[in-house]
Write a structure and sequence with these properties.
By secondary structure, this protein is an alpha/beta fold. It folds into 2 domains: 137 residues, Alpha-Beta Complex (Aspartate Aminotransferase, domain 1), CATH 3.90.1150.10; 265 residues, Type I PLP-dependent aspartate aminotransferase-like (Major domain) (Aspartate Aminotransferase, domain 2). 36% of the residues lie in helices and 13% in strands. The chain has 13 helices and 15 strands. The strands form 4 sheets. Strands 4-10-9-8-7-5-6 form a 7-stranded mixed β-sheet, sandwiched between helices. 44% of the residues are buried.
């Protein structure tokens, strides 16, 4: 696309955007003067869909009016409420509806999945993970390794970028799996790397790992609602994601989980069980012999918080209004492409874009590394970030010099992108 560095071009793109009206489905924060923020932090916490607020209010009314009868009454009774999210989740991650479920929180789900899919032996006990994984993932993996009596220094196989690079090359991941595969029990990597915004080649990683006898799971915190996926077709064993970033379901909202159909009928698969994973046709017979459901629901423990599920349902319905993940991805490529064009036009000497430029290796997020020259204060990057925040830009700062921004196709416009780059350019020049 032939982008132009003008406000008129950005406004023209917004007029031609087939899903521009979805922005009106969100509540956008305002500055003190009443003007809307340029909100570019959907990679951390997505904005509130108006349907989410409406659906939560509806369930509060059900609770007030029906009490316990709300479990079985109304258009969306609470007992099967998680089932109302299955179709939306399945579309987003490329799964069958019985392969997805809403439960717990992200790191809790990673632990529960590792109970089933990390089964170390004396010869196959390693977990392949990034060297600089999101800390919670690292802690989860390290604690699982210790729980099984192994030494993390020996059992955690850490993949990192080459010297002087920021991105982990896919060929390096595959080479490590090929070399160490016989000792790897589990490959657990992100779908999208939180710091750089790099999209991992989940299909090729899964294929080779399975050839080497390894189980494969992905943390999709920064992938779900951001990039299209085909977890079922790729034969991924499990995946977990939060719902408060690109899925806009509120801070700390209930997470999502995928378990491939290949594992649904294996009653001997170890798991930590709870009654919500028991066969729902006999659950209330209150018998003490666990009979797991033949779906991802078998990994549930307790009945989930309905108010949070209501917010997720509102978000998923909003995504459906926008045409689904495919439609969002089409706009996201144009938005992030336009932002990259403007940054390279205005700030090539001041900023390195860490996120890969290849569309197959990037999502909505762009990670911008501010260059420091001799004589610059170590605090200059943070001063620039504070300056753009004062002008109404909400982004994300990562020590020591990275600003993460994500133009989200559901509620960000091309004019947002243009104005952001103008504000950032002025802040860089003034500092």
């Amino acid at each position: 696309m032939n982008y132009q560095n003008t406000l008129e071009f950005a406004q023209k793109m917004d007029l031609q955007d087939p899903i521009a009206a979805i922005r009106n489905e969100f509540t956008i924060p305002k500055m003190a003067d009443g003007t809307q923020e340029i909100y570019l932090c959907g990679n951390s916490l997505g904005l509130q869909p108006k349907l989410a607020a409406e659906y939560v209010r509806r369930e509060l009314e059900q609770w007030a009016q029906l009490g316990v009868k709300g479990h079985f009454s109304g258009d969306f009774p609470w007992m099967p409420y998680h089932e109302f999210l299955a179709e939306g989740f399945a579309d987003i991650v490329g799964a069958k509806t019985d392969e997805v479920v809403s439960m717990n929180t992200l790191t809790a789900n990673l632990h529960f999945m590792m109970v089933s899919f990390y089964r170390p032996t004396q010869t196959r006990h390693k977990i392949l993970i990034e060297e600089h994984a999101f800390p919670s993932d690292h802690y989860a993996v390290e604690s699982q390794v210790k729980f099984h009596g192994f030494d993390p220094d020996e059992s955690m196989l850490l993949i990192k970028p080459r010297e002087g690079e920021e991105i982990i090359r896919n060929e390096d991941i595959l080479e490590l799996i090929e070399k160490e595969g016989d000792s790897i029990a589990l490959v657990m990597l992100p779908g999208v790397q939180y710091y750089t915004g790099q999209v991992f080649d989940m299909q090729s990683i899964t294929r080779l790992a399975h050839e080497k006898g390894c189980n494969v799971g992905f943390d999709l915190a920064h992938a779900a609602g951001n990039i299209p996926m085909q977890l079922h077709d790729w034969n991924v064993d499990f995946a977990c994601w939060c719902t408060y970033k690109y899925l806009n379901s509120g801070p700390g909202s209930v997470a999502g989980c995928f378990v491939h159909q290949n594992h649904h009928h294996d009653e001997n698969l170890p798991r930590f069980a709870g009654w919500w994973g028991h066969d729902k046709m006999s659950r209330f017979k209150m018998e003490n012999k666990f009979k797991p459901m033949k779906s991802a629901e078998a990994w549930q423990l307790s009945n989930p918080p309905v108010l949070s599920l209501a917010a997720i349902r509102g978000s998923l319905d909003t995504i459906k209004k926008a045409g689904g993940i495919k439609s969002l991805r089409e706009k996201a490529l144009k938005l992030s492409g336009y932002m990259r064009f403007l940054l390279e036009t205005e700030l090539a000497d001041d900023i390195d874009i860490l996120t890969p430029s290849d569309a197959t290796s990037s999502g909505s997020q762009l990670s911008l590394a501010l260059k420091l020259r001799p004589g610059d204060s170590a605090e200059r990057g943070k001063q620039i970030f504070d300056a753009i925040e004062e002008k109404g830009v909400t982004g994300d700062w990562r020590y020591p010099n990275v600003i993460r921004v994500a133009p989200v196709p559901q509620y960000n416009s091309f004019e947002d992108v243009y104005q952001f780059v103008q504000i950032l350019s002025a802040a860089v020049k003034n500092n």
